[in-house]
Amino acid sequence: MLSAYVFDAYGTLFNVHAAIARHRAAAGPDADRFSEIWRTKQLEYSWTLTLAGHYIDFWTLTERALDFAFARVPSVDRALRGKLLEAYLTLDAFADARTALAALKTRGVRLAILSNGSPRMLAAAVEAGGFGGLLDTVLSVDSVRRYKPRPEVYALVTDALAVGPSGVAFVSSNRWDVMGAVSFGFKAYWVNRSRTPDEYTDLAPLREIPDLAALPGVDR
Fold first, then answer.
1. Is there a catalytic annotation at residue 219?
2. pLDDT of residue 78
3. Are the C-beta atoms of 160 and 121 separated by less than 8 Å?
4. Which of 60, 150, 154, 157 has the lowest CB atom count within 10 Å?
5. Is 159 found in the same domain as 101?
């Protein structure tokens, strides 16, 4: 057991496709494609802006990515925009998320979130998921105005928890995020829920797991 477990938020604890799932009937047959484009552009904007030396908060990027998805998939009614954004603030947590956090908490490890999300987004998601009493801290990239996988973002963890990188278990469903965490020196776990192929074999996680229930300290 390491002294701190740090979780990515979106895609790891919270289902990024839950917003469209709540309005699937209204969105129509292109709902899944629409949601994939929304998520892809949201991340793309964070990477390209960081590379260019600019920063726009994640909520604004989420809105812009949604507008792009509407433009690309005109079959989805733009009147859903407000409802989808409201749903994104309180995304459904994965079924294994709270159980995993609670199990680790009983073992005395410190728990944190490190996310691209803005403080407002994270506060709403944590409250909706009922995670508040389990977490020692919630860290947003907003404080350094750069996005993952920049090393300055992962340094937020070591600074906040006063622990070296090797003492941190970093948990993410995003392989590019795991790559950044491993590069920084964290012991990383890749939650490969969708069984996607590995893209960064030279920066491998400590373990690839199918869900949060398989984390050490949770699975036994």
1. no
2. 98
3. no
4. 60
5. yes
